[in-house]
Automatic annotation (TrEMBL):
InterPro entries: NLP_P60_dom, Papain-like_cys_pep_sf, Peptidase_C40. Residues 70-196 form the NlpC/P60 domain. Belongs to the peptidase C40 family. This is C40 family peptidase. The lineage of its organism: Bacteria, Pseudomonadati, Pseudomonadota, Betaproteobacteria, Burkholderiales. GO terms for biological process: proteolysis. The keyword Protease applies. Keywords: Hydrolase, Protease, Signal, Thiol protease. It comes from Ideonella aquatica. PANTHER family: MUREIN DD-ENDOPEPTIDASE MEPH-RELATED (PTHR47053). Residues 1-31 form the signal peptide. GO terms for molecular function: cysteine-type peptidase activity. It comes from the Bacteria.
């Protein structure tokens, strides 16, 4: 079990502070230039609407850094976003079962870029073919590792940009986005790994 503190505020699947992190994957502002709601025809914007992020953040927010990420984000990150709200389950490795941290990353990598990772977080960190990446060079789709059980590489998630990562935290919680810069995560960061398959740009929406 991953030993991670419970959040003080909990929503149906996201904390209010994570709305921006997911928004960074949109590549457009919350509202259209005339102030109307985002077009539901855009699959990414539709996903955010379905997950309740737009209604939580509001459509009248000031412009953000949304446009920076669409050309850098991978299909892998968008796949990971699809599982926000799925419950944690120790040993779980599918959406129906629920996910533990490494089960989540393994499932996302396999079903987005076709890379089958080892089952445990420490094994994923040592996986052949993955490249060690310093924190300052993180890109969306990189695996990020933490020491949450007094041993290296005992927790893993996927970096999504803007200092945020998506992961399956612990028993009683759900897949969510959190900020790596808060003290708890910053103090426990062990390193990051990148797979060549995650460096390809996201295909434009049709």
């Amino acid at each position: 079990m991953d030993v991670i503190p419970r959040e003080r505020r909990r929503g149906p699947c996201l904390l209010s502070g994570t709305a921006l992190a997911l928004a960074l994957l949109c590549g457009s502002a919350w509202a259209s230039p005339d102030g109307a709601s985002p077009k539901s025809g855009d699959p990414v914007m539709r996903l955010l609407e379905e997950r309740g992020v737009l209604s939580a953040a509001g459509t009248d927010s000031a412009p953000t850094l949304l446009s920076q990420v669409r050309d850098k984000a991978s299909d892998l990150v968008l796949t990971a976003m699809n599982f926000i709200g799925v419950r944690y389950r120790r040993g779980g490795g599918t959406e129906d079962q629920g996910f533990d941290c490494s089960g989540f990353t393994r499932y996302v990598f396999e079903h987005s870029v076709g890379l089958v990772l080892p089952r445990r977080a420490a094994e994923q960190a040592a996986s052949p073919g993955l490249v060690a990446i310093p924190m300052e060079d993180l890109k969306p789709g990189d695996l990020v590792f933490f020491n949450t059980m007094r041993r290296a590489f005992s927790h893993v998630g996927i970096y999504v940009g803007d200092g945020k990562f998506i992961h399956s935290p612990r028993t009683g919680e759900q897949v969510r986005v959190e900020d790596m810069r808060i003290a708890y995560w910053a103090q426990r960061f062990n390193g990051a790994r990148r797979a060549p398959q995650t460096t390809e740009p996201l295909r434009p929406a049709q």
